[in-house]
Protein 1
Amino acid sequence: THEELGEWAITINPFDVDATADALHKALLMDPVERHARAEKMRAVVQQNDVARWISAQLQDIRDLIEPLAARQPEVSREEALVAGEGTI
């Protein structure tokens, strides 16, 4: 993401055609030493934040959203659920 790679990446709005062209131009003209250094930094970020870490963070974000909602839901007994659903679950 931009937050993770923005310091080293040339970030753009993909819907901005002119900015995309400018970014490509900048990248093509970039000094090879700078290009290599940026690539190494981005590669390190990607290696540290592999797919396992990414999916774990996504699942934790979901848990963080669900737990407060679940805490607000009143406990309903099986009998109350049956009455509310007229005998069907």
Protein 2
Amino acid sequence: KLLENFFIMAKNRFLLLFFIFSLSFSTLIISSSSYNPTNINIINPKNNLPNTLLKKGYVSMSIILENTLNNFISSSPNTTNFTIFCPTEKAFLKIFPKYQDPPNRLIQYHIVPLGLNKNVLETFFHRGSKLKTLLLDHSIVVTKLPRSEKVSINNVDIAEWDVYNDGRVIVHGIEEFFDPALETLLFYGHNIGSSSGVEKKTEQKTYRLSCFGGRGLYRRS
């Protein structure tokens, strides 16, 4: 049994390393073919985001963001503030035996083009507030009231606030990956980016969406 568990862990770690390599390589190819000198440069020698994540135990996201973040944010050239929801190492190891979708899309789904520190999120947003992500036409949703014991988004708890905050980029640690295939749409009338600031509570609905060509993030048994 111990030997079997060892091989399972070794396989998961190999898949994780392969994922990080493939993500970095594919993003570098895209970046070289779509270079824009006006792009915002978040990762630079004066910025210690990757090192901070590494020291705090978010090893996989540290490597991924060091190689990909500048390319991801080029899709929002007029935005200067970003919030990244960073899965733990345990979440990375848990997801890869089930992983199907393009890794770039998954990481983009965890980046919001807004500066959302703990105080802002708890003060200005409520259950059902939708936060647009860098993944086109996809939002994450606040699913637990801010004054609960823990704030959750897409039913995933925020485990560690302000892992990193330099005034432009904010990183919060989360216990699991957000699953785009289980995107929760809670209609409370208030939506980020809407012209109306009036809250009009309407019927709450939950939809199970099949994103990315109908496959979803996880295999279903």
Protein 3
Amino acid sequence: EPAPGVDIEGFEVVRDCLEDIFGLDALAVDGPPNPNLLVDYFNSLERKKQEIDFQNVVMTSDAATTSSSQNTSA
């Protein structure tokens, strides 16, 4: 429960902006606003970056393996 006087609508606007601008995962921090809202969002962003980095490593590794096997069979 937010403290008295906390602008809940303001938190929702911030959440929407961060989702739109940074592509953050709303489900990762869905629920009522809390004091750690920005921390949760940026942790979500960091997880997303790690997933993208991992996918890039896998694709690079797959491409190197495919290229290597094509060179061997040629």
Protein 4
Amino acid sequence: MIKINNTDFTTKYIIDAKFKIKGVVEKSDIVGAIFGQR
């Protein structure tokens, strides 16, 4: 469990990543790439 702004959250994954991107992408594209979604 983690706490953000005094609110408790149960987490399944904690990911710390950096990306270099050329072009325009959506947040959902990044999440899909991490978890192998198409």
